[in-house]
Write a sequence for this structure.
C-alpha cells in the first residue's frame, strides 16, 4: 500500500513523533511517498529504511496513493486538502499542533490508532467544500476550501460594507471588519471564534458570520448549501483581502465574487472512537465541571 506523508512546518520537539509515525508505517509494510520539502527537512534527523517517492504538487501525487497522512495541526490538514483535490484520496490527521479538531490522532494514541487503521477499524467522513467563483483567476488550481471563505478589510482601519445576496436576492449589507462563509467543518474554526454556531459535519449548510459587525442586531445565519452566495464590496480602501482557509488573495471592488458548494468532497479517515461528538466534548470541554 502506498501512503503519502505531508507536513509544512514542525518543531524539533515533533521529530520523535514523526519518527514514530514513519516506523509504524514501515512495520505495516507501507510504501511511503513524501512531500519533497518535508523529506529534505527531516532527512538529517530521522531513520528512514526505504527509498521513498516524492510529490511536490497535486499533479505528481501518485494516483495509486491509498491515503495521505497530514502531520501537524489543522492548518496542515487544510493544506493537504489542496494536494488531494478531487482525487478521492482519504486524509488521516496526526495532531502535532494544539487544538486539533481535524487532526484527531494525538501522539499518545498513535499505536492504537495505526493498529485500528491497519485492521480497517475506522470510519470515513465525507466533508463538503466551499468553491469560489470570480471574474478573474484567483487561487490557481485550488479555488476551494474545507473550512471557510472570508472577505476582510486590508489597508484601512475603517470597516467595509459587504452587500450579500442569496441566489441573486438581497440578504443583508454587513458593516463590519469582514465576513466569513463557513462550511459545517469550518463552523468550529474562525466562525466559532466570531460567535458562530457549531454545525454537525453532515449538515447541508453554510454559516455566514460577520467579523466585528457595526450593527449589534446582525447575527450569524445558517443557510442551505444549495444557495449561491454573492458579494459586492465597498470601503475607503481600494483593496480587500479574500481568503480560502489559510490562503490569501488581494481583490478590489471591481472583482465579482460568489461562493457555492464544491462539486466534490473530501474524505477524512478516523479511528472509530474519534467521532464528532467525542471531539467537541474533548476540545471544548463540554460536560466537564471546572468548579473543583
Amino acid at each position: 500500500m502506498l501512503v503519502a506523508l505531508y507536513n509544512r512546518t514542525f518543531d524539533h520537539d515533533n521529530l520523535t513523533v514523526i519518527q514514530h509515525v514513519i516506523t509504524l508505517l514501515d512495520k505495516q509494510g507501507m510504501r511511503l511517498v513524501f512531500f519533497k520539502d518535508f523529506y529534505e527537512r527531516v532527512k538529517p534527523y530521522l531513520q528512514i529504511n526505504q527509498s521513498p517517492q516524492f510529490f511536490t504538487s497535486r499533479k505528481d501525487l501518485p494516483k495509486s496513493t491509498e491515503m495521505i497522512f497530514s502531520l501537524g495541526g489543522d492548518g496542515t490538514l487544510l493544506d493537504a486538502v489542496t494536494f488531494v483535490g478531487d482525487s478521492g484520496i482519504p486524509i488521516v490527521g496526526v495532531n502535532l499542533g494544539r487544538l486539533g479538531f481535524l487532526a484527531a490522532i494525538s501522539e499518545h494514541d498513535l499505536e492504537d490508532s495505526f493498529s485500528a487503521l491497519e485492521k480497517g477499524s475506522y470510519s470515513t467522513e465525507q466533508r463538503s467544500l466551499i468553491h469560489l467563483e470570480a471574474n478573474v483567476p484567483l487561487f490557481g488550481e485550488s479555488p476551494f476550501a474545507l473550512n471557510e471563505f472570508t472577505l476582510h478589510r486590508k489597508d484601512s482601519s475603517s470597516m467595509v460594507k459587504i452587500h450579500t445576496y442569496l441566489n441573486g436576492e438581497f440578504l443583508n449589507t454587513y458593516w463590519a471588519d469582514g465576513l466569513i462563509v463557513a462550511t459545517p467543518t469550518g463552523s468550529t474554526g474562525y466562525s466559532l471564534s466570531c460567535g458562530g454556531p457549531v454545525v454537525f459535519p453532515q449538515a447541508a449548510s453554510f454559516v455566514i458570520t460577520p467579523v466585528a459587525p457595526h450593527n449589534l442586531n446582525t447575527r450569524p445565519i445558517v443557510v442551505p448549501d444549495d444557495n449561491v452566495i454573492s458579494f459586492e464590496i465597498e470601503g475607503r480602501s481600494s483593496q480587500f483581502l479574500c481568503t480560502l482557509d489559510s490562503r490569501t488573495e488581494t481583490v478590489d471592488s471591481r472583482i465579482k465574487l460568489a461562493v457555492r458548494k464544491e462539486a466534490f468532497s473530501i474524505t477524512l479517515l478516523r479511528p472509530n472512537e474519534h467521532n464528532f461528538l467525542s471531539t467537541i466534548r474533548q476540545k471544548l470541554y463540554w460536560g466537564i465541571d471546572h468548579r473543583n
